[in-house]
Amino acid sequence: MSRTRITAALPRTLTNRAMAMYSRWKYGAVLDPLVAAGHHGGVTRTYMLTELGVGGWKALDPDLKSLAVMASAVSIGCTWCVDFGYWEAQHGHLDPAKLHDVPAWRSSTRFTDLERDVLAFAEAETATPPSIDDDLAARLIDALGPKAFTELVAIVAVENLRSRSNAAMGLSAQGFSDRCEVPLGGALAEVGEQ
After folding, report:
1. Which domains are seen in the chain, by residue range?
2. How do residues 131-176 score in pLDDT, each as one tens digit?
3. What is the value of pTM for the model shown?
4. Which one, of 43, 33, 47, 44, lies nearest residue 3 by Cα?
5. How far apart, in whole angstroms, are the C-alpha atoms of residue 1 and residue 29?
6. Model confidence at 180: pLDDT above 50
7. Do residues 132 and 124 make contact, with C-beta atoms less than 8 angstroms apart?
8. Residue 143 burial by CB count (10 A; 0-12/13-18/19+): exposed, middle or buried?
9. Would residue 130 be called left, alpha or beta, if left means φ above 0 and alpha means ψ between -120 and 50 degrees?
10. Residue 70 near residue 85, CB atoms below 8 Å
């Protein structure tokens, strides 16, 4: 059952049916953001093309990418993105304890200096207005290289689109984290407190 502010039945278009079928196959459920966006064919197609394009980005280390995405989702307070982000990263190789500590990364001892810079950058880019420190950006460009840094900037921007859209649509955690070993209680509580 979808949790979205739009209560009208999802239009039965070929695109929506194909997206729902793919989503069930890949994730075991129809993703709530697909249901929310499915009321506008152009938005659905644009989201689909964006996500296909993002899936081809390989310059930034996947663990750093997951941390940046999670930091942005936590900053915005999108419980759907936090829930799905835990599940998605769990299927990568990122330490689940690091994911759990993202909301409290400043006091956690689990992160390297580079990971801390990535988390700080993601939060700074997500802030309204963005508050990116030149020294932080320079350290990241030196550590990652220009191509991976550009990807970091872009993935945080994409996550802002996702998280802000999902939050505006009223989406909440869909239960993906229940299928992995990461306890969401603390992280979701910290998201709710922000």
Report:
1. 14-55 (no CATH), 62-193 (1.20.1290.10)
2. 999 999 999 999 999 999 999 999 999 999 999 999 999 998 888 7
3. 0.86
4. 33
5. 10
6. no
7. yes
8. middle
9. beta
10. yes
